[in-house]
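Feature request, filed as a ticket because there's no other form

It would be nice if the structure record came with a short human-readable summary line next to the tokens. Right now we just get the raw output. Example of a typical job, pasted below so the devs can see what we mean:
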Amino acid sequence: MRLWILTAVSISWMMLSPCAAAPSENTAMMSDEEQAMQLAKKHFEKGKNAYSASDFTAAIREFKAAEALKPSAILDYNLALANEKQGKKKVALSYYRRYLELLPQAQNRSEVEKRIAALEKAVAAEPATPAPSPSEGPTPSSPHSFLDLRSSDPYAAAAPRPPELPKKKDNGGRVS
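Raw output as currently delivered:
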């Protein structure tokens, strides 16, 4: 069913393209908009083929490349499918929601709503991951482990710390 939707959607997406009527036309004669559509369609086809081959990482990369050129609700749906296959439930949820937001009369709306409900239930059932304490820093499994988010300067962790200043004593013998 999903592969059929991918194929049916790709055919309808191509028919909407102004370039589809003259595929043999020289790209030099096409407008920037038409060239972007042609390139987006190539990325879409590569993504569809990667998805069919269960290479979901490549499918996501190609669908995102197509989306960068020509955003489409159809690409959001396909990105949701591929992310769901990879177990990225929260990402899949956001793409499914955006798909329905952009295409409220989608023919597969009830199926997508069921997927959203199932994913929401699965996400809610996942154990909460405790946040690392400030002394621990990011954990290797953290999605942001490449950057210390506690600092606004990503290079601050590599900078040497300034020496500590000696503490002063006031007249009452208290340390300030």
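Something like this underneath would help us a lot:
Residues 14-24, 136-163 have pLDDT under 50 and may be disordered.
The domain at 2-21+28-125 is CATH 1.25.40.10 (Serine Threonine Protein Phosphatase 5, Tetratricopeptide repeat).
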